[in-house]
């Protein structure tokens, strides 16, 4: 039989490719079985496949396929065990083996339940990985006591579990059984000469591999995977991005198991994803920003156009609060039951019941806060009228009395609603309590609420029906609460968007194997992508690895693959993350976002960063200034010398200048600015200064520049080998990943700088006259009685022929290019005696920065009557050189500079002049004038 492993490049639309493949293969096989990692891609493929092909293909997710063959080919078929039954079984297993000798947790079953759950999932994985033969009893003295007691008996516990549950099946056990089934003639006969197409399954457990091995003896196999064949992550430096190694490992695993040939499907286009990065302080602002992108695509019908990926399900409801029914949206994701209205309602019922129970003496009394929480739940509104009315009355009473506790009156309907929970003493009474609660609901009202109906249905299946199939046992309220919580914790409410059209909103797992033109990925934060490394208290990582179980590292590699696969397969990707901290949480940008930013840098691309704060727009009629206070008046009146940075800060926004220079409020450095921070700028300046200073006075041709480049890169290496304190402090603030990336970025930027200036078609040999020139100043007259001095340090002064050229190195990305043509016009029409925001804005929007003009003025003292040109050199941008003003314009710049300096002294207000620069302003996090464009 033949087997082929397809490596399909990410630029190819994957579902479309599969649909075409199935269409082309339909006549070659009497049966095609398509097995996918998840359900959603099947919907996309079905939509594109021809009806004849669809009829000939059986579509399954991998779990569905295994469950189906277990049910069909087992004689007799095992019973599928419920989660509740399984957890109680493991509780009893621990109690009856270990607990017999040593009562665990002082006999507290509620605490023991957590260990039962851990053991259950460990044995589930052992089943799926077929590791029972490797299982041993472990003496692991570093593990905590309970884990030690379990690990010491692991082998015998597993043997007992296998024996006790031999007529039941569960997730991993179904895979174990499927291995045996696929060895049988009955199965082989049915699937002889068929084709099995596996898709998007990136990790194969031992049982998966054995199943494939068995199938390959009777059927052909096509194994489809997506990977990066265009080397998108290739960089010159040593830094290695092993994102797609998982596919190579998968290929190797399959090759070891069966005779399979690799086929590479490359794309004809060299599509590069356009990336946009967004930073937020909170979920609400993030949701609003997503909505603002969706607005532009309101009527999208084609499902492959735009997707919103929500790795953190908690973002779904804030996002939905913005979207009305005019939008074509399709939601596909699992939502945690405990976070739904019904989940929270159930939780509050137990909280009240426990509170009442703990009061013993006053069994009619309950904590008012807990009761108000319960009565305020939206679910109370679904109960019969007598209950909802009573709930309102009690709430009113509590608010009027303001007392910390509330005593129920005899026969209160609300009390009877929870009394069955208070009296729980057996599994059966837990079931009855839920039935009684649900009986209080008005069915007619519930029918109008589709989601809530579905949630109550889930409660019915996972708790009420599951208890029905179990023998009764005595339990107390605390245990009942814990058991309910553990069961509900694992329920994901499935949203499956149907019909397939419109904007797709889905979770990260649901997006596997899908490609979209444009994606928005929210919450790209550590702890979400990847999720926090959970320490498993039962089984230490070393033992897991030794046994052959999936390690956290492997799981993280899969999450990483899923994320980058999704990004690179789209044309446009919006990466959103939160930074900063709220009282409860601290947000850190994900290492995945860092990797994308670093790669963009290494490719010399312009980074698109946004910090939207949508609610902060300034209303047209509101004030855009504060009154100038005494401190500001004194500051400007006594200030007699200025550096260009300060004048530019005022020109850009007087309010930002006021906060920084007068109020001395520390600017907040955003994470994006970290690579652009002063120290990084200092390193670049220092290296270029030393590089050019060596050749001062000599006319430099291209060969000399090559020498300077080499010397500079050598010095760069030394900086990272023997760093001074300033560099060390800077490096200490960076993550390991950034530390590794920084020398590569610097090397890339500096090499690129020399390459661009040498290869420029305007290149002319030049002489470096000065580096870091700081000897000059310029006195400028503001009024007959006021003069101020301008000073500054000029990075480099060159002589090109007879002309002097001032060069300033910039490590930031923001363009400071003046609107040279408009400057004369603005100067001619400026009201020089009017010091308001309008006039200053005209100056700002044309001059942009006075820095180079001030440098020109400064050097005119030493180099009189010389023609001067100016340039900003951006070390890091692809457009390296930006030309500034020349000595021809010097008088106009001088006049506008005088105006700006007079504005500082004479304006009655401190104006805020919001602009697109607010996004980068270090005070934007509290500035109420900020405006975002
Ligand atoms: S956020 Fe904008 S308006 Fe506010 S201080 Fe900064 S630049 Fe000025």
From TrEMBL:
This is PD-(D/E)XK endonuclease-like domain-containing protein. The lineage of its organism: Bacteria, Pseudomonadati, Campylobacterota, Desulfurellia, Desulfurellales. InterPro entries: P-loop_NTPase, PDDEXK-like_dom_sf, PDDEXK_AddAB-type. It holds the Pfam family PDDEXK_1. SUPFAM superfamilies: P-loop containing nucleoside triphosphate hydrolases. It comes from Hippea maritima (strain ATCC 700847 / DSM 10411 / MH2). Residues 642-928 form the PD-(D/E)XK endonuclease-like domain.
